[in-house]
Design brief:
single chain, alpha/beta, 26% helix
Length: 94
């Protein structure tokens, strides 16, 4: 497979989504969640998900390190998003 599209990803993050027990968020009250999910986030990673969904392959480039970097790399692999990150020892996500 030949890939022409390489995108250097600058900002990466882990996004957390909470599903609340109540459909109404109540100020001043305890709003409990029954489920939470974590995903590789950041504008570029969302862009890669869209690009993948429309059937185009590209390679996510950048630097990763620490827990956040390892999580993001694993999460993108489960989505079959190609990446070629440079792993650094320090906690570094660029």
């Amino acid at each position: 497979m030949e890939i022409d599209n390489d995108i250097f990803s600058y900002i990466k993050s882990i996004d957390r989504f909470l599903l609340l027990e109540s459909k109404i968020f109540e100020l001043g009250e305890t709003n409990r969640s029954f489920e939470d999910n974590f995903y590789a986030g950041g504008k570029r990673n969302y862009g890669f998900k869209v690009i993948k969904n429309v059937g185009t392959d590209c390679v996510n480039l950048g630097f990763l390190g620490g827990f956040t970097g390892a999580f993001i790399e694993r999460n993108l692999k489960t989505l079959n998003i190609l990446s070629d990150f440079v792993n650094v020892e320090e906690k570094y996500e660029n």
